[in-house]
From TrEMBL:
Keywords: Antioxidant, Disulfide bond, Oxidoreductase, Peroxidase, Redox-active center
Domain of life: Bacteria
GO CC annotations on file: cytoplasm
Active-site residues per Swiss-Prot or TrEMBL entry: 39 (cysteine sulfenic acid (-soh) intermediate)
Pfam family, any one: AhpC-TSA
Protein name (database record): thioredoxin-dependent peroxiredoxin
EC number: 1.11.1.24
Amino acid sequence: MNKFPEFALENQNGEVVSNNSLEGTTVIYFYPKDNTPGCTTQACDMRDSMSDMNELGVKVYGVSGDSKKKHQNFIEKHDLNFDLLVDEDFKLSSELGVYGPKKAFGKEFDGITRTTFVIDENSNILKRFDNVKAADHADELKDFLKEG
């Protein structure tokens, strides 16, 4: 898949973000759940890297199946400085192959696998990071973006 699929998702404030609203390079990262340890680590690392992302002209969005309300709470609790998008029906996550069977703590369940996409303003996928580690991913991402 070379193109990021067409999408239109609401952010935490109910504003719709879609392919048409993207300008320049965009990072869209998928994560399992708001306010869980790994997802909080990843979100806070992204928050702390935002000045570097802004300098590179890169916009960042996080995506999970959580509601607008949960996203608002997550943003407020951790002072996040980027939008979180709602994929409650997991339509976009499924289309990208990042939603499905997972195993954790000996249990099987469906969920989002931590995955990051870097796309351009024409929805071309410049890079896909699979099975992302929550810690240090922001640095890995910055290194890729600086090379580009």
